Amino acid sequence: MRVVIARCSVDYQGALEAHLPLATRLLMVKADGSVLVHSDGGSYKPLNWMAPPCAMTEVEPDEAEREEGTEAVWVVRHGKRDDTLRIRLHEVLSDSSHELGVDPGLVKDGVESQLQALLAEHIGTLGDGWSLLRREYMTAIGPVDILCKDGTGATVAVEIKRRGDIDGVEQLTRYLELLNRDPHLAPVQGVFAAQVIKPQARVLATDRGIRCVTLDYEALRGLDDAGSRLF
């Protein structure tokens, strides 16, 4: 990765035209060819960028650019569209390149498999007297995350998501329709459990008689005692 801090102006031409006046900015050229222009504020998003496939060439400024104080020009062209990013460098304050190697990727804490294991271990989170029957209970259309019994002995199917949306409710609905055909399990109720449940999903679940439960990952791990909080 090449990292440059420079006083520069930037012009973009493509589906629209955009101009960044002369200012000190961070320029990043990644190994995949992408070029990003950052300021010192405005959150993590770049002010402008060109995503691959693209190619960058460094050219001499024209006469008008040189009169304005431009020392070098980066021209970045997209490989499939007529998009061009023209970066005019007036003063380079820092220019360094670094070999970052292959990134192993983001390892997420609190993925669905971890939530499933924690909730199965602490099934009492769903109510007093609840007991686990099985994780990954297989059906003809896929595995139900958790099959358990509530405090009255009724069978409950639990679908677990990190972010609960309408698709998750539909998935649980299909499982319930199938499970309720089994006389050894029926009647089977549903619980839709997630760290965050979207309002539309909650409305749909409630309309279908499915209980929604918001999971506190830290509390399930024993790192946070929700009952001892002041607020």
UniProtKB/TrEMBL annotation:
Role description: Cleaves both 3' and 5' ssDNA extremities of branched DNA structures.
EC number: 3.1.-.-
NCBIfam families assigned to the protein according to its UniProt record, in alphabetical order: PRK03298.1
EC primary class: hydrolase
A Gene Ontology molecular function term of the record: single-stranded DNA endodeoxyribonuclease activity
Keyword Protein transport part of the UniProt annotation: no
Protein name: Endonuclease NucS
Transmembrane segments: none
Keywords, in A-Z order: Cytoplasm, DNA-binding, Endonuclease, Hydrolase, Nuclease
Annotated ranges, domain Endonuclease NucS C-terminal: 111-225
Family of this protein: Belongs to the NucS endonuclease family.
